[in-house]
Design goal:
Chains A, B: One of its GO terms (cellular component) is cytosol. Chains A, B: It holds the Pfam family HGTP_anticodon. Chains A, B: Its EC number is 6.1.1.15. Chains A, B: Homodimer. The structure is a homodimer of 571-residue chains. With 571 residues, chain A is of the alpha+beta class. The first copy, chain A, has three domains: 47-73 and 108-237 and 404-455, BirA Bifunctional Protein, domain 2; 253-384, YbaK protein (Alpha-Beta Complex), CATH 3.90.960; 475-568, Anticodon-binding domain (Rossmann fold), CATH 3.40.50. Chain A is 27% helix and 26% strand. In chain A, strands 3, 7, 8, 9, 10, 11, 12, 20 and 23 form a nine-stranded mixed sheet that branches. A five-stranded mixed sheet of chain A has the order 27-26-28-29-30, with helices on both faces. In chain A, strand 11 (219-223) and strand 12 form a beta hairpin. In chain A, helix 1 packs across helix 12, helix 2 (44-63) packs antiparallel against helix 6 (167-188) and helix 2 (44-63) packs across helix 12 (447-457). The two termini of chain A are 20 Å apart. Chains A and B meet through strand 1, strand 2, helix 2, strand 3 and strand 4 of A and strand 1, strand 2, helix 2, strand 3 and strand 4 of B.
């Protein structure tokens, strides 16, 4: 492609409302333009990159035996009512009425439509397994769209759905997709982790997220450097400490703690180690007594709400107790709560369960207790894992200590079981002649999101650094003063023609711009391989090559440059 | 592709609500499945064909120098309010509110968004001309979706928008797109006509429709077999008869015509030639007197509402007068109306203008007049072209008589001038340093609609007949009893491998189905080239080739079949 026939539109500054580096760089590099909050036009440079992502995803899905379809963007509510998602999903499901006052949604995913297709088309076990996928426009009406294409409202997603005869076969489909996802992200050249993820209300133990590693990621990924253990923080198990609980060493004492509301206040006021304090979190219960439930984690630990939400006796979805119900149940306001004297259900995190002489709230405003011991001062609690792991925790597989990275979720594989097939009565005839519900899995890839994630992982102060696989153009030829110098023109056109003939995705930046603009644009846009051709160099028979990650350019003999570049591309 | 790894899902009967042959065949061939009225899932077989259309369109748009972008499906109302289309467009514009109660539309076209891009990105005449296009999901909330993908609500459209410095340059962009469209439809192998079309309220004389010829088409296309004149019926000029008006030959007479309401009634009652009768159509005027306007066409002609809508003094948009206003102005009800005694404005079609001794309504219920003559019995009318042409009319270019065909509109090129750029204040700096409005054109192709149109043009009682360019697979290999016969398997696999190696888009139908099913499916789906391989033939060293249009199969030596097929493909 010649730049003069393409459309390059770079900006010196990103618009003020851009809130993350990938969004700023995509705007500056002319990849996207904002149309509304979370809604973008894909400009030529961005679309080209998006298509590279799509092509890799499509090739690997096809290779894995999945079959492409395209389900509609606009879907009738009646299907969404069958599964109950019409009511259960929040405002992120965009609902609207057509001219005849019939209800529709704009698809955020397509479980309903694909299950409707399966129940119409897949009649016999002989037709199984099947995996249908689409690469299609999706819409989620995010309350606060942000981070550009990473949390936009309109986006492109690859969603696949497998239909199997049995849970075992569904497991094979899952493994097949898992392997395809590895190939996809490997091919893209991204650094990522596949991490075990929570399966939520659906249950089962088969769910993995594919996380692109980036410091700016929204998700915390837990892993063990000494093994292959990896999970997202919602799921990662905090194992019990290896030691037993020490015997009580102090008597329980009331301490007046005026104005002390937080653990930090408490530690400062009492000058005690934070590891001796216990944080009390009160959540709504689901019992008829209306009593809330008390959750205890060590003062320096964080409650894991996903884990807490699954506890017996706790309201679903998890809800923090209101101040009124806390005062009614504890006789005190938040800030001074604890287990001593509380009549309701108490869950203690595994770490709390081995503490002695704890510092807790006194269930009386501005009063705390020291020297609190389970079994002596209050009943033994139910011991559970309800906290987020922290760096240095023992890995659940016992192979070493846990580390934590930030990540951006770009893919998700999920074993659904018969949830949707049962809700929509989608069955096939098995070899015993009886109808059975499809065992399903769903597999998503955030196609447009990948671009943002790739940039968050690969950029510097000058701009984007694309991998070869994702770059809008793999190679850019930057002629210095092509309009003035016949030698430069000839060398640039010659290299362009040679590389094109070899099937290289090369851009000849023949725009009539100053050399400084061309060079800055090439770094902002982030083509991985750049050849600069100038009169001065040519006189010595040289041109300059530079990989976008290189500190400096390399002089290459002009006669060898095509072969040199092909070598860099691994040809 | 092997059928066992693809997804073929044919139906014996189309669902009952399918209302046109292409819709029935697309459903039966498993190309689409209905999700809601006018909303379909593209099944693998249909999607493959859709992608072929998209690829041809994309290649030719790129070749023509247009630049691909992707504008969002969901667009903010604020842009549509700038052009006034938010209010002006009817219910086919799907409007909705997001969770924050802000107004949005689902794009039916993208003039607003692309003009917004242009005013942001194209600052100087040096950047012009530019042509941005997208192949993207569109939605029109049709009152009565029908004809499958031909008049669906969700559909795929290629829409392009050119931005030019001057009207002259815009004309070159228009010609460039016109030529690209010719290449596109030529490559698809469709029989089509480019016809001049009405430019509606925008004005200008540059608008062409690309119409695929099919008896079932919704549009009437007028053309002159002796020249290259072609126009749609809305635009086609009905020229004045060559002869002058004869002198009056009869006196005007009142005739009592009880119960006579229509021209047919009148002709039967008076036993007169229909060519002597005049049809009176009353439409609302735009004058302060509130008087309606009388339009006269010959009894056997049809009023052309597009032409009538442009007449001075006629309300815009065209509206037929209400019975009350007709009685008030004429003193009679519809069925007995005419020019004699009417005080308002009268337009006569050119054919009516040369009539003498006309039969008209008498402006008195159940009364008609014979022997009516302009200039004697009523004032001379204003003479205009307000009727649809009919077969045998003289071509406006004087080269012969007009013929009429039915067509399906699949493309439209349109010179917009500065309508949108003015409404959205979209300017560039010209070489005189002054801001000027962009001269624009818009260019649509109904990508998904083309499939329906291609089928309406090419089918028989057994199914679809695809052209090589559009077929889901160009060649199908149908092995008879591949599971039973090693010879059949070997021959089929060998041919499949050979053709694939040559880059042929070939399907090996290796499904375990009865031969009758495989053969019927191949004709229903309509692959253009079929090779049937059976044991009996192989024993004589023969296989059968049949083009989908052939009456019978041709025996071909098994050893020569690959070369034979390649020959048929023009290789």
């Amino acid at each position: 492609m010649r730049a003069s026939q393409f459309f390059i539109s770079t900006l010196k500054e990103a618009p003020g409302d851009a809130d993350i580096v990938s969004q700023k760089l995509m705007l500056r590099a002319g990849m996207i333009r904002k149309v509304a909050a979370g809604v973008y036009t894909w400009m030529p440079m961005g679309l080209r990159t998006l298509r590279k992502v799509e092509a890799i995803v499509r090739e690997e899905m096809d290779r894995a035996g999945a079959i492409e379809v395209t389900m509609p963007v606009v879907q009738p509510a009646v299907l969404w009512q069958e599964t109950g998602r019409w009511d259960k999903m929040g405002d992120e499901l965009l609902r609207f009425k057509d001219r005849h006052d019939r209800d529709f949604v704009i698809q955020p995913t397509s479980e309903e439509v694909v299950t409707d297709i399966a129940r119409g088309e897949l009649k016999s076990y002989r037709q199984l397994p099947k995996n249908f996928y689409q690469i299609q426009t999706k819409f989620r009406d995010e309350r606060r769209p942000r981070f550009g294409v990473m949390r936009g409202r309109e986006f492109t997603m690859k969603d696949a759905y497998s239909f199997d005869r049995s849970a075992e076969a569904a497991g094979q489909s899952y493994d097949n997709m898992f392997a395809a996802y590895r190939r996809i992200f490997d091919r893209m050249g991204l650094t990522y982790r596949a991490v075990a993820a929570d399966t939520g209300a659906i249950g089962g133990d088969r769910s993995h997220e594919f996380q692109v590693i980036a410091d700016t990621g929204e998700d915390a990924i837990v892993y063990c450097p000494a093994s292959d253990y990896a999970a997202n923080i919602e799921l990662a198990e905090a194992v019990a400490p290896a030691h037993a609980r020490p015997a009580p060493g102090a008597a329980m004492q009331k301490v007046s703690t005026p104005g002390v509301k937080t653990i930090a206040d408490l530690v400062a006021f009492l000058d005690c180690p934070v590891e001796q304090t216990v944080k009390a979190v009160v959540v709504e219960g689901d019992g008829e007594d209306g009593l809330p439930v008390l959750l205890l984690v060590r003062g320096d630990h964080e409650l894991n709400e996903v884990k807490a939400g699954k506890l017996a006796g706790v309201a679903s979805p998890l809800a923090f107790a209101t101040p009124d119900s806390i005062v009614a149940a504890f006789g005190a306001n938040p800030g001074s709560l604890g287990p001593v004297g509380f009549k309701g259900k108490v869950y203690a995190d595994r770490t709390v369960a081995v503490m002695a002489d704890m510092v807790t709230g006194g269930n009386e405003d501005d009063v705390h207790l020291t020297g609190v011991n389970f079994g002596r001062d209050c009943p033994e609690p139910v011991v559970v894992d309800i906290r987020n792991v922290v760096v240095g925790d023992m890995s659940p597989d016992g192979q070493g200590e846990l580390a934590i990275q930030r990540g951006i979720e770009v893919g998700h594989v999920f074993y659904l079981g018969t949830k949707y097939s049962q809700e929509m009565n989608a069955t096939f005839l098995d070899d015993d002649g009886k109808p059975k519900f499809f065992e399903m899995g769903c597999y998503g890839i955030g196609v447009s999101r990948i671009l943002g994630a790739a940039i968050e992982q690969n950029f510097d102060e000058r701009g984007i650094i694309w991998t070869d696989a994702l770059a809008p153009f793999t190679v850019v030829i930057v002629p210095m003063g092509m309009a003035r110098s016949e030698a430069v023109r000839e060398a640039a056109e010659g290299l362009y023609t040679t590389l094109k003939a070899q099937g290289v995705d090369v851009l000849l930046d023949d725009r009539e711009e100053r050399p400084g603009v061309l060079l800055a644009d090439s770094e902002l846009i982030g083509y991985p391989h750049r050849v600069v051709i100038g009169d001065r160099g040519l006189k010595e028979g040289k041109v300059e090559y530079r990989h976008r990650r290189d500190e400096a350019s390399t002089d290459v003999a002009a006669a060898d440059i095509a072969a040199f570049v092909l070598g860099k591309l691994g040809r």
